[in-house]
Amino acid sequence: MTHRIDTQPPTRPKRPLLLRRGPMENIATVLIATGFLMLFQPFLLVLYTYSLVTLLAGTVMFIIVSKFPE
């Protein structure tokens, strides 16, 4: 007679939204797209002025976030 013990696999603790890879990659992508649109719009100089900073922030954020675990 065999005894069967049902064990469940260990569950990983849920990470907060800001430490998850998927949502943070999406936010970084939106930042990059926003910086791109700011760079090529002809209406407001202030948007053009901060476009490179926005692009760089989104790019650096994407590079960092892509190292997060799934």
How would you describe this structure to a colleague?
The protein is mainly α. The protein has one domain (17-65). Helix 1 packs antiparallel against helix 3. The model has no long low-confidence stretch (mean pLDDT 89). The chain has helices spanning 21-39, 45-49, 51-65. It is built from three helices and no strands.
Describe the structure concisely for a colleague.
Helices cover 56% and strands 0% of the residues.
Indicate the proportion of strand residues: under 5%
Largest sheet properties? none
Q: What value does the Rg take, in angstroms?
A: 21 Å
How widely separated are the two ends?
42 Å
| Low-pLDDT residue spans | none
Q: How do the SSEs run, as a string of H and E?
A: HHH
SS field, number of helical segments? 3
How would the global form be characterised?
rod-shaped
Regarding quaternary structure, what we see is single chain
What is the averaged pLDDT score?
Answer: 89
Helix content: 55-70%
Structural class by helix and strand composition: mainly alpha
- According to DSSP, the number of beta strands is 0
How many independent structural domains?
Answer: 1
Task: Itemize the secondary structure elements and their pairings.
Elements: H1 21-39, H2 45-49, H3 51-65
Key terms:
70 residues, mainly alpha, rod-shaped
